[in-house]
Amino acid sequence: MGKFTPFLNRAIAQVCSQRFSAYGTQVPTKNGAIASRFIVSASALMALKCLLRTRTARSLLLALVGLSLSLGIHIVPQVRAELPVATDNLALVQVGKNHYNAGQFAAGIQVLQQAAQGYAETGNPLQQAQVLSLLSLTYQKLGQWQAAEQTIQTSLSLLDTVPQVNPIVRAQVLNAQGRLQLATGNAEAALATWEEAETFYQQADDPVGAIGSKINQAEAMQSLGFYRRTAQLYLRLEQALFALDDSPVKAAGLQNFGNLLRQGGDLEKSQDMLTQSLALTRTLALSEKESQILLSLANTERTLAQRAQVFQEPAAKDYTQAALTYYQQAAMKSTIPITRIQAQLNQLSLVIETESLSPDQGLLSSIAAGLSDLSASRASVYAHVNFAESLLKMSDLMVQKQSSDDIVAILNTAIQQAERLADQRAISYSLGTLGKFYEKTQDWTNAKTVTEKALLIAQQMNAPDIAYQWQWQMGRLLQAQSQDNSQNLPVNPDAITYYTQAVKTLNNLRGDLVALNPEIQFSFREAVEPVYRQFVDLLLGSPTPSKANLSQARNIMEALQLAELDNFFRDACAAPAAVDIDNVDPQAAIVYPIILPNHLDVILKLPGQDNLRHYAHQGISEAQVDQAVEQLRLDLTKRSTSISEIKQDAAQLYDWLIRPFEADLDPANSDNPTVKTLVFVLDGSLRNVPPSTLYDGEKYLIERYAVALTPGLQLLEPKPLSRENFRGLIAGTTNAPSFEQEGFSTLDNVANELAGIQQQITLNQILENQDFVKENIRNQINMASFNLVHIATHGKFSSNPQQTFLLDWSGRINVQDLDSLLRTNEPNHTSAIELLVLSACETATGDKRAALGLAGIAVRAGARSTLATLWQVNDASTAEFMQRFYQQLKEPQLSKAEALRQTQIAFLTEYPDNPDKDYLRPYHWAPFILIGNWL
Are 805 and 815 in contact (CB under 8 A)? Predict the structure, then answer.
């Protein structure tokens, strides 16, 4: 059938030249928006009636239908009436596909099963295999994974019985198999399958199909965290798309690529691709397709606005206005009811989200009227739930009081439609949202009943991304009911059980949560983080929490740190492993500050089994902690601040974090274990100040203890520093072109710094100025085993990964690139980087979570320890500090933390009254912090 390939391509072009609908497979998101995908109008199939006369042509049309899936192009009916009963096998396939795209998956399964059986009875294994691939996709939509797997395996087996299978057909089946593999958590297999599918499209000389497979591969790579490979594939995708002639197919490809880029977090590129797709669609006068692209573009602008709001960027208002404009245009342009409602619902939820705007009554009425006209489908179910959630938020904000009966009626309609469709995911989603409504109205009995049902369904269909929400909801309900009934139970044991389940589910999800719902990255603080914090609040709720509760609370906080890093990188960035701190360092104590809504708790883990202490500062809010941190940070970074002011503000944090445990840490008490190192697992804004500066009224903390930070003990590789064969890669630049490009000043003392380090590290390789570029670093790492990497250049740490970077001679080294840059590709090089030193970096001003970027760099680089600066000290003191540090580091009896401590004490004590060298000021010695392994 290879000779039919040009004919197939003409058929595709003919289909795509027809009028496009904007009906989409809808996915509700945490912010209330509904994401959608591009679909081809069923009326376009009329152009292919002439192809249905022969058996070969029928196979051709089935291949075309399969190709539509590879590109995300869905063929759907534009009618609301029930579909006619079909007897011909091909007609059954078309009806089943129409059911699929209408979100009527159970009905689609019945029809496709009939078609597959019909082809089996007439001895057509090729057509049967194609239908089974569509059937597998339909099973996947309902979460029926076992049936989906059995069906796709049967399809593949049938293809093996057919000689000379058209490569496009085989690619179609592989596309369905890859979708199943990705959905069930096997992204590596999905990637390999879609790569194989691409080769078959290439054999068939089908560039459109190859592009669809590339888009699928990019999705799998995103799930695996292969950012470098994904970026390379993006480039190839872009080149392939622009190599196509201007056509509806090209417009569709650009739109799907733009949607994929949004899901992967490359929002500016997504905006660019969708803008070009929109321009092309307008040139081709495809009005309904224009509506769909406007909707995609609005969703990207909205995500840009969310990111800008999270990172406090001024562009948030402009992005929001652009999104609202595009939603309005999409609704006006669309002739398909579901698309119009989808755009209006997204517009409504965005208006509510801004809080500065008031929803238009005409918009509410239009949505309500439009919903009543929709036939049952998953899209309709999600639209009803979306509308109900928006009405609930309006009531919460007192924007407009909504009738409880109206909200319940909307949700009951959603439940009834979902049950009619036998769509278990939609049923669970609708029931859980109804439970949320009852929770807000404090109808605890009904809330628990429907939430339990929603949770059971989510668990039965293995949908952890929604199961954790209902587990969390049950925990909230049980705890709130206990307090409401005045049972005098500080903690409801059943609530603890459900919170435990919710956290376990989230921990198992890890990076998959962002892949399942990309908007989670920017709603993490509302949708995920509260699960952990509320759980810890319950565990510490009694006046004297048990040792078991204290131990569990510290584990939960470590899990939260890991979840934050996963969210930062959009993947599971590190593999946690259980660590027994007493076996790692019997002279280290771990400090866990925990910022809760109305109190600041601190847990201290002392040497010894379950040797835990706890103190709660009641009445201290997160805002008070943030204010104290901001003031101390300002003191430390201004050289004009008096030492007495610094000590006064540093004493406040000491009083909160350390003073309650002074008796437990007092070495004069022989009953106390010996503690030489304090390791902090810091929370929130506390990460932005160095604990070494905490002041007890007589001394800084560094004068009594070595100090280190870690995102969590689970991320430690507990090995001491090896001084044997100490080899260093030393890199940096004084005034690179990239400095001017990014608005940074010169680093006048880098040359002296690098020269001094060379004297201390005899086995070294230096990359300075023009030689300091990414490719040279990568080559050096692969050529030799370095256990030390020292980089003296500008860098910025931010809670925004796109604004977390180092600068080489020519440009940025993004945090996402560090794992490929500093990890060797040579299998013979087994030694990891023991210590990464970043001596001229800074955290972003005004970003209270900026140090998350520093932790991200530490984890992403793969080094056991990272020594970095919280603020840049462009002074000769940095060169001297580094030289002294390496002198101390060579002492075999000193840990890395102690080597840092000795260097900081030298600055404190050796320059008491020198007006030319005010090195005793914390400005010079305090920004250096050690992250990770302190041994």
Answer: yes
Residue spans of alpha helices (H) in 142-266:
145-160, 167-183, 187-203, 207-224, 227-243, 248-264
Separation between Cα atoms, residue 327 and residue 353, nearest integer Å = 15
Output the pLDDT for position 522: 67
| 3-class DSSP assignment, residue 621 | coil
DSSP assignment letter at 864: S
Strands 599-605 and 34-35, sheet pairing = unpaired
Phi/psi at 346 (5° precision)? -65, -40
Buried b (16+ CB within 10 A) or exposed e, 715-725: bbbbeebeeee
Distance CA 824, CA 729 (A): 13
Strands annotated E in 466-530: none
Q: Which residues contact 142 (CB under 8 A, 6 or more apart)?
A: 105, 106, 109, 422, 423, 424, 425, 461
Identify each DSSP E strand in 625-759 by its residue range. 677-680, 706-709, 727-732
pLDDT the model gives residue 66: 43
* pLDDT number for residue 75: 31
Residues of the chain with pLDDT under 50: 1-28, 30, 34-86, 827
How is residue 601 annotated by DSSP?
A: E
- Phi, psi torsion values for 712, nearest 5 degrees: 165, 145
Determine the pLDDT at residue 511: 60
Smallest Cα–Cα separation from 414: which of 425, 402, 426, 405?
426
Q: Is the pTM of this model over 0.90?
A: no
- Closest by CA to 907, choosing from 873, 857, 935, 856, is 873
Helix axes 378-396, 337-354, angle to 10 degrees: 20
Distance CA 482, CA 492 (A): 7
In the structure encoding, which two tokens stand for residue 524, read together? 């993490």
